[in-house]
Amino acid sequence: MSKVLLVTGGSRGIGAAVARLGAARGYAVAISYLRNRAAAEDVVAEIVEGGGQALAVQADVAQEGDVQRLFREVDATCGPLSALVNNAGVLETQMRVDEMDAARLQRVFATNVTGSFLCAREAVRRMSTRHGGRGGAIVNVSSRAARLGSPGEYVDYAASKAALETLTLGLAREVAAEGIRVNAVAPGIIDTEIHASGGDPGRVERVKEAIPMKRGGQAEEVARAILWLLSDEASYSTGAILDVAGGR
Questions:
Q1: Would you say the pTM of this structure is higher than 0.85?
Q2: Which family does this protein fall into (predicted)?
Q3: pLDDT along the chain (248 residues), means of 10
Q4: For the domain bounded by 3-244, which CATH number is listed?
Q5: Of 60, 88, 129, 248, which residue is most buried, by most CB within 10 angstroms?
């Protein structure tokens, strides 16, 4: 029976790279997407054409009912969940904290924090030996912003990722004796579409000189770190936060 990997926000960027690499490593892969059905279907088609098994499910992780439906569809189509990558996240336009309204904060925290909690909850209910599961692994996609703060740009995003790192630490200790490992990766400046979402599509080029390695990272470099944390090679690692940030 194939191991089953669920990647939230798997239609583009880091999520899509994780889905492709996971399939290459032998996982049956399910991805969730919010709006871009065509991009999600392209990822699925690429995996299937390569001989893998893949499924795309539309779901807003900020909505509890959507999360429950997502996990039920994965159960029914792919089988028992082995691994979860909490990757879905949103980034709003760059601005200072004194310009932010409550609606913006609610959008960011609903997806980046509440969504990750809900998905982790559903994964634990399926994986934990306490609930009759066979164990598994969770990787949360944080950001170096959690410890740098992103002043003048995305302090709300940075704060949401700091909450995700605390979820990682607390949940890891909570379920360590139940067969589940929980870790996080903290990417730095990665060359994906998320910068355009924040109104700064040229951000990688603009800030690369501040990175010790003098370049932005690639989604595939983050994916390799995630797949290592999911693998048996990381069997004694839980509660870890692995920076993938070129030294920054």
A1: yes
A2: Belongs to the short-chain dehydrogenases/reductases (SDR) family.
A3: 92 97 98 97 98 98 98 97 97 96 98 98 98 98 97 97 98 98 96 67 83 93 98 98 95
A4: 3.40.50.720
A5: 88
